[in-house]
Amino acid sequence: MSGLRQRLVALALVLPLLLFLGVFFAWPLVTMSAEAIPQSVVARGLPRTAAAAAAWDRTTPPTEAMREALVADLRAAPDDQALAGVVQTLNSAKSGYRTLIARTVAALRGGEGPADLAAIDRRWADPAFWRPIAAETANTRPDANLLAALDLRRDEDGTIRSLPEGASANRRILVRTFVIAGLVTLACLLIGLPYAMLMASLEGWRRQVLLAAVLLPLWTSLLVRTAAWFILLQDNGPVNGLLRAVGIGALPLIFNRTGVVVAMTHVLLPFMVLPIYSVLLGIPRNLMQAAGSMGAHPIRAFVEVLLPLSARGIVAGALLVFMAAIGYYITPALIGGPQDQMISSIIAFYALQTANWGMASALGLVLLAITIVLYAVYHRLSVDEPGRA
Amino acid sequence: MTDPFIRLDRVSKAFGGVTVVDDLDLTIGRGEFVSLLGPSGSGKTTILMMLAGFESPTAGTVSLDGARIDRLPPHRRNMGVVFQSYALFPHRTVAENVAFPLRMRGMARPEVAGRVARALDMVQLGAFADRKPAQLSGGQQQRVALARALVFEPAVVLMDEPLGALDKQLREQMQLDIRDIHRRLGLTIVFVTHDQGEALTMSDRVAVFNKGRIEQIATPREIYDHPRTRFVAEFLGETNLIDGVVDRAGAGTATIRVADGTAIEAATHHALASGEAVTVSLRPERLRLSPSAEAPNALPAAVADSVYHGDHIRVRIDAPTGSLIARTPRGAPEWDRGARTFATFAPGDCWVLPR
Amino acid sequence: MLRPVRLVFGLLATLFLLAPLVAILPLGFTASLFLEYPIPALSLRWMTELFTAEIWRRSIVNSLIVGAGTTLLATVLGTLAALGLRDRLLPLSGIVRIFCLLPMVVPAVVMGVGMQVLFVRLGLANSYLGVIVAHTVVAVPFVLVNVSAALAGIDRRVERAAASLGAAPATVLRTVTLPLALPGILSGAVFAFATSLDEVVLTLFVAGPNQRTLARQMFSTIRENISPAIAAAAFLFIAGTVLVAGAALLVRGRLSARG
């Protein structure tokens, strides 16, 4: 029974999952984070030249350092394929790079030490052929996408400013995400807290029915539930039928904020009810009776006794609901209108429709950071010693 | 004790810096029934787990029949273990539970069946072979656990509070059964318990544990009548403890002077020196209440309280040496509060402990 | 005093929770072209459509392929890890566990973006393997949680008893630990299958047109041309989950009866 042996066995058991999640869960997140940092094709292909050109005034002839850097970059390029992107980008700024680069690479091949670029091609003596290189590599700063995700940008002098009103909607969507998640959390709390209390106060089959009513939706596919709300809330759906029957008349319930909040509340309600319920179960029933025996009105007893004791469950439930809600995609995508799309929808839009990985990743990073912070708080609460409110 | 069959030599065990077993020696003879008795946390269960192989000693050696076993994994130690709350396999029938150790030893099926049947008959559970443990009563589960630990004829059987979950009547029946099986099969049994009555009635020898050490190991009679330390005297049964100083030490007896000046004649095996601080242990059932002071030791006392207990009467008296408890047989005269009496006892009724 | 209020609230809340599930199922058997009440007549046309229309049939098959692969991979990886994390023998066991549960927390869209970029580089994009791997990432925490709970419920002494009776560690695992943890492993597997069946977001990011799953097909049908086929698919979904869960329960029951 050597401890080391047992530890090795434990390691061997955990390692497969750890490796799997390392490759297929952590690595994608790292990849995404890397994508969020923009790098121009030219800067990637000609890193030394990019660095050297940063100090250049773009009117005087290219400096010695720039020329040496370019020679080194071109010699370091593994093959023509690696430079294809560079040539394409530079060509779109000024034509002639295809032949220029090809000729230069051919001339440099096999050689070592300093080389006279102007002798290989006269165009290298012309600042006009260096300017696109400098422009392409200087424009992009590492935090450009992250700032853009928050509707910010860096000016020429480096100060961070807001984008002009209407230029981008990211910040508005971020605020909207918080608002919708907050509304859903509030709705869940308003229904979930009394529901959990009712469930804890009942016994026998009544409690079982209420518990089943929470668990059944939880076990049902999210997609099915969203589809069900789609059917219920549509203009000629059962809910509007009911409203018409009682004389209120049909209301617009789908493709707007109301529909999104209703459907998301339904989907997330179990996450509010269950933590509160489990905390309430641990509170001795006779506490409320004791409070009553000492003369406390039931409402007073609730505020003074039950509420503080169940605070843990309420906070845990609220965090859980809020955390899940800010990352929601499917329900807003299907039930909401254009004005109800949340940050996930925008990320999906950038990634799936416009192939703008940089922006998708930067927004993804923002969402990830918010979620991790909320989860850390939630975890802190849930591992705290029980019994402390 | 015959030959040293199980031997723990200077064994220590620490869990994360906390010493649970402290430099302990213990020798158990072949065929002996030894109880490890002590409060929880005294190290008795840890000793059992080290014998079974679930814990390894931090220092020291454990040997069985002359061979070291402290590096051997549990499944190669060939010891039958009866666990607290039995640890039956809930997913297997009674017969499968009992067959398990035989199958592990690669025994042929027909032989397994025969042995299982015999083992179940021994514990009178032949009719329950196809039940699941959950379908049995606590006492029946206990007997399955016993049959399972015995069926492969292990050299040693270890029992960890095996009767703790049973009610009083069942427990006493099982105590007799286990003692009977022990005699019949000539097993070596190490029995962990915190129930002193159980330890006294079942064992050849009792080891009293305290804070990771053995305070005393001896026969039940010796341990009860001649406890070596104050802890042992207090842990086994009820006792009155009177602090005093040795006035005169003789052969086998001593005169102890108590704070108020009273002198007590007491028997002792210890070599005592005059002026040594000691404690006199006086069992309540040895204390007699009598109207006259005609005894080697007679303390004038007043009755403070008298409580009827069915088979005896418990009387609390105030004597010059402090408050004492006496057990008087039923049928003895009832005592009124404040009644004057003498608490009398012979030197052999009390026992001197070093302090 | 508060009686009527409690009763009304309880009824309304239960109605809110259950109405959607009740409302969608009958529509799978409507004869109408629309998802509407009242149902004019009952018909199996939409059920038939699911199994005859190539796009639906294909997506059902894909869901079964991906679901089976995910269940297998997630159950094996999750069960092994739960065994390894059981005794907290490893340094940082707590942190390792949190890391393994993190896919439950990280928004699917965030994982999707990263996977889309990475899977192209790894050559996993638009492949069954890629979809299975992505689904396993989100399914495996459920297996870990379920199996860990089952292992925590096993009385340590039962395993020690097996060792004391002569079973080597591997034998203890095979004859005692795994059989006793089996209910947890089975629920973990059911959860993994259900997660895979329901997963849309990651599928959108990593699957190609050939790996279009039932959930993905439902998603775009609701989005683009809603039809009662949705309700029929929802029925299939619920029936599938109930069937798998029922099968798991049955196996569990059979195992505990046989021992």
UniProtKB/TrEMBL annotation, chain A:
Pfam families: BPD_transp_1 (PF00528). The chain crosses the membrane at residues 173-197, 209-232, 260-284, 305-330, 357-378. Keywords: Cell membrane, Membrane, Transmembrane, Transmembrane helix, Transport. PROSITE patterns: ABC_TM1. GO terms for cellular component: plasma membrane. It is found in: Cell membrane. GO terms for biological process: transmembrane transport. Belongs to the binding-protein-dependent transport system permease family. CysTW subfamily. This is ABC transporter permease. It comes from Methylobacterium nonmethylotrophicum.
From TrEMBL, chain B:
PROSITE patterns: ABC_TRANSPORTER_1, ABC_TRANSPORTER_2. It catalyses: ATP + H2O + polyamine-[polyamine-binding protein]Side 1 = ADP + phosphate + polyamineSide 2 + [polyamine-binding protein]Side 1. One of its GO terms (cellular component) is ATP-binding cassette (ABC) transporter complex. PANTHER family: SPERMIDINE/PUTRESCINE IMPORT ATP-BINDING PROTEIN POTA, SPERMIDINE_PUTRESCINE IMPORT ATP-BINDING PROTEIN POTA. It comes from the Bacteria. Its EC number is 7.6.2.11. The lineage of its organism: Bacteria, Pseudomonadati, Pseudomonadota, Alphaproteobacteria, Hyphomicrobiales. It comes from Methylobacterium nonmethylotrophicum. Keywords: ATP-binding, Cell membrane, Membrane, Nucleotide-binding, Translocase, Transport. The complex is composed of two ATP-binding proteins (PotA), two transmembrane proteins (PotB and PotC) and a solute-binding protein (PotD). NCBIfam families: potA. InterPro entries: AAA+_ATPase, ABC_SmlMolc_Importer, ABC_transporter-like_ATP-bd, ABC_transporter-like_CS, Mo/tungstate-bd_C_term_dom, P-loop_NTPase, PotA-like, PotA_ATP-bd. Belongs to the ABC transporter superfamily. Spermidine/putrescine importer (TC 3.A.1.11.1) family. This is Spermidine/putrescine import ATP-binding protein PotA. Residues 6-236 form the ABC transporter domain. SMART domains: AAA (SM00382). The keyword Secreted does not apply. Part of the ABC transporter complex PotABCD involved in spermidine/putrescine import. Responsible for energy coupling to the transport system. GO terms for molecular function: ABC-type putrescine transporter activity; ATP binding; ATP hydrolysis activity.
UniProtKB/TrEMBL annotation, chain C:
It is found in: Cell inner membrane; Cell membrane. It comes from the Bacteria. InterPro entries: MetI-like, MetI-like_sf. GO terms for biological process: transmembrane transport. Residues 60-248 form the ABC transmembrane type-1 domain. The keyword Lipoprotein does not apply. Keywords: Cell inner membrane, Cell membrane, Membrane, Transmembrane, Transmembrane helix, Transport. One of its GO terms (cellular component) is plasma membrane. It is a multi-pass membrane protein. PROSITE patterns: ABC_TM1. The chain crosses the membrane at residues 60-83, 95-119, 131-154, 229-251. Pfam families: BPD_transp_1. The keyword Aminoacyl-tRNA synthetase does not apply. Belongs to the binding-protein-dependent transport system permease family. This is ABC transporter permease.
